[in-house]
Amino acid sequence: MRLNNLLAQGKTAIVKKWFVLAIGTYPSDTAKFLKRQKDPFANPVGRTIYHGLEALFDQLLEDMDYEAITSFLDPIVRIRAIQNFSPSQATNFIFFLKDVIREHTQKEVSEARLFNELLLFESKIDKLSLIAFELYMQCREKIYELKANEMKNRTFRAFERAGLVSEIPADTPDLVNINICKEASSDT
Amino acid sequence: MNISYMYSLIAVIILFLLAYVGVKFPGGEVFFGIIIPYLALIIFILGFINRVIDWARSPVPFRIPTTCGQQKSLPWIKSANIDNPSTTGGVVVRMILEVVFFRSLFRNTKCELKESDKISYEWEKWLWLFSLTFHWAFFTVLFRHLRLFTEPVPACVQLVAKLDGFLQIGLPGLMLSGVALLAAVTFLFLRRILIPQVKYISLGSDYFPLFLIFGIAFTGILMRYFTKVDIVGVKEFTMSLVTLNPHVIKGIGGVFYVHLFFVSVLLVYFPFSKLMHLGGIFMSPTRNMVNNSRAKRHVNPWNYPVKIHTYDAYEDEFREKMIEIGLPVEKMIAPETPEEPEEKE
Amino acid sequence: MSDVPKPDELLSNIDYRPSRTGWMDTPVDIQKGIYSYAANPKSVEYVGLPYPRQWNPIEEDWQLPENWKEIISKGFRERLDRFRSVKVFMDICVRCGACADKCHFFIGSGDPKNMPVLRAELLRSVYRNDFTTAGKIIGSIGKNFKKIIGARELDLQVLKEWWYYLFQCSECRRCSVFCPYGIDTAEITIMGRELLNLIGLNIDWIATPVANCYRTGNHLGIQPHAYKDMMDFFADDIEEITGVKVEPSFNRKGAEILFVTPSGDIFADPGTYTCVGYMMLFHYLQEKYGFDITWSTYASEGGNFGFFTSHEMMKRLNAKMYAEAKRLGVKWIIGGECGHMWRVIHQYMDTMNGPADFLEEPVSPITGTKFENAKSTKMVHIAEFTADLIKHNKLELDTSRNDHLKVTYHDSCNTSRGMGLLEEPRYVIKNVCNNFYEMPANTIREQTFCCGSGSGLNAGENMELRMQGGLPRANAVKYVHEKHGVNMLSCVCAIDRAALSASMEYWVPGVEVTGVHEMVGNALILPGEQKRMTDLRSEPLPGMEEDDAE
């Protein structure tokens, strides 16, 4: 895998470029802050993205381990899922790597005819994007779950535990008699 | 291109030309040397006082210090009497640290995750360092200038000038404060155009005073080291201003009038701008108050009465339910209500 | 987020929000997930606030009163004359940018208008235009010049921008710590929200709790009998876990002390467990030392959403505490774990509704400690009270019952930066549990990060905003979670307990949230108690798991 060697050598530059493109999706003033501020507690967004991309790139160079990939990709997607990006905007940063790599390896690929390897590598990136899509949906679902259930979980549950939400059980005997669904009645 | 600083730069250049050329016209020296400076000083003093009085006219209705350390509560818990002052003494020290050393800016700690998970703290204090340099250098330069306005020159002014020039480079001796001032102004300017967030928030009124002060420092240095202004003549002139017996001295040169004009503009600009932070910092309620609002009642001069939901209104609404569940009430329900029979059923 | 992007936009990394333009030329874009719903007119009307009406923030027409500009302008003037803080803070900012990256909402959202300095400039720009000499003179030359000095006219767009961003500030004061002049964005937000309330522009998660608190004494509008039911249930729970029957008293005249806590502790998990902790502590003290305390259903809300509406509304809600203390004839008051409730008690209550000359200077009846720091308000924080008890060895504690917890502590914004309550809760925690780990220094104490949902922003519809704001805090929790295995985030604030639960669920699954007194309750050995198998959440204690699995 000559392409892999090439990419491994250029890792620092590639990841940096990828990172710059990824944070270019933020307003320009913000992007520079995300890039400059190295304190992970003062700048969780920038640092999470940077460390995540670095680790993901390592994964792409090796055999892709689903668990590991998820653990690195999840924090990035988790942040972007709540930042007013559309779904495609939230996950498009993965594809930016294609541009970076094509640019970085252009000469070698055409000279040494590494097209096959490049295609192989790019399909790895495609897989990565699918995982990102999965994660993105999980995050969004979580948000909707929180939106729908927060009050219920916190307040209703407290009342329920206290036995203060008792009106419905009191009526159950009547309900059993007027049940119109066969299967359901056999359930009870 | 940022129009905010272009406009400010253009404004300062126009001011420069105005003074440099204007002084060559007949009566120009009197205008720029005597009338403008006197007028500027009067506007500065009245404007400053007016602004401070205006602030003071608004009361401080609540005791709202920002507490930046442990409160004084139980005797065995060490309280942070400076960052969270519980005494007037603490406030005084807090204010001194704030005004003289920019304590809050210094607080800007920054940490970094090194290698795997070790946290290390990094020295990230450029803003603090250069603002402090800027203000102290400005103050020193100002103080040194007293030698032009006093006769005989007080010993402390001479001492400061001596310390300031202790490097003894060149002739006339290089004054550190002037160089530091110029460097700090340059830094503060570059910071405004290079750090994106700061650039985004900067207004024309942020750039203008920077350019103006740069102009003042630059013309000052120019006179001292390069055009070698006639210092005896300058002193004679400034003393004539101080003794309220103003007269123009010939041959001091255009740069001097530019310098003086810039200072005058700064004085006039001062009370109407953010430069009033010089006065405002002393009046900031989050810094200049003792955090003792639970120990000592703070009085609000306009504490007007408000509508509240009284206990009686509350009980009136829920009395029955309260009685039913066994909560004590003020008024029992009148016995006429024949609710009792229900219970027997 | 609603619009489907065009194909050629899909793979571009161009700013999704153009900010190449200056901030004044960037129009406000009210986003779903960020804004909170408009106030229910019934709630606004109930407390007699002006202009109750149905309106919708994402619609063009906000149904404003015709003379709204006049109302705002008059209101602005009034506040400049009433508050030196506002006047000084309007004038002296030099835009040094020290605050810019200190705001959790900026860090989490990346929206430049969430930089504290810019949030304040939204109001300052109008102030310069309408109330300063320089603004008036330069403004008269031309519109371009106005922009250079940062002045602009108040129009509908500006108003919408105010509303949108003033309800993206949690009044946490973190920026104020770093400001060289102590400019406090909270003051500016409070003032801005007051102005918005003058023309009926509140959000529902503030307005409705305000109305509820006003009427029933708690934010959910639960009536007194249900309050009592809930507490009875807690008592049953305690009996089940410990075998000890506790009997809290309510509205009892002649008690020595009144206890006021946020209603979230009674009606919302996991605050309920903190409430159980208080009840156990009070019972223990009553049995051992004859401690005499009463709860009140009338003054049953320590939390004060009026604080997020206006100074006047804050005063109206807060008045109940002293009124009830006076009616019941207690000597002094203890306040439960709550953030902004304590900012109000510490910095406003005595001034607004005092002097409390009908009360006595608080003295702990158990240790004899005089709470000198509260001798005027006569109100003591429960963490101060409990820390004093522990220091004097008055509590029997079995810390091993918290051994399943690895605890970190989140300083609530208000108690840390509006009071300075830092060591007391830590002292209590360290004495009731064995595994305590601090988060990184620039995320705790006076530099603590907000939970992301303070100042009335813990609604449901703005969940994305809350997660953005909660990120910096969660990020620090994640660090101690990964490094030390921390699984419990403790705090002394009811909004924290609600908000951080959601935030942890999203950002750091595996970390739960607790009040400090829940852990006190776990450790406290009640007189005559049975061997405990579970903690207060009915989860098996370490070593008891096998017994539990039947």
Q: What does this protein look like?
A:
The complex is a heterotrimer of chains A (188), B (345) and C (550). Chain A has 188 residues and is mostly helical. Helix content of chain A is 81%, strand content 0%. Chain A is built from ten helices and no strands. The N and C termini of chain A lie far apart (63 Å). The model of chain A is unreliable at 166-188 (pLDDT under 50). Chain B folds into two domains: 3-283, Fumarate Reductase Cytochrome B subunit, CATH 1.20.950.20; 311-344, no CATH class. Chain B is 57% helix and 3% strand. Chain B has 14 helices and two strands. Chain B has helices at residues 3-22, 28-57, 88-101, 103-106, 126-144, 155-164, 176-194, 196-201, 204-226, 231-242, 254-269, 277-280, 311-325, 341-344, and strands spanning 110-114, 118-122. Mean pLDDT of chain B is 86; it is low at 340-345. With 550 residues, chain C is mostly helical. Chain C has two domains: 15-202, no CATH class; 209-538, no CATH class. In chain C, 47% of the residues lie in helices and 5% in strands. Chain C contains 24 helices and seven strands. A four-stranded parallel β-sheet of chain C has the order 2-1-3-4. Chain C has a three-stranded parallel β-sheet with strand order 5-6-7, with helices on both faces. In chain C, β6, α22 and β7 form a beta-alpha-beta unit. At the A-C interface, α3, α4, α7 and α8 of A face α5, α13, α21 and α22 of C.
C-alpha geometry of chain B: elongated
Q: Tell me about the largest β-sheet of chain C.
A: 4 strands, parallel
Question: What is the ordering of alpha helices and beta strands of chain B?
Answer: HHHHEEHHHHHHHHHH
Strand order of the largest sheet of chain B: 1-2
Structural class of chain C: mainly alpha
Q: Unreliable stretches of chain B, pLDDT < 50, 5 or more residues?
A: 340-345
Structure class of chain B? mainly alpha
How many discrete structural domains of chain C? 2
In terms of DSSP E residues, the strand content of chain C is under 5%
Number of strands of chain C: 7
- What is the overall pLDDT average of chain B? 86
Please mark out the parts of chain C with pLDDT under 50 across 5 or more consecutive residues, or reply none.
Answer: 14-18
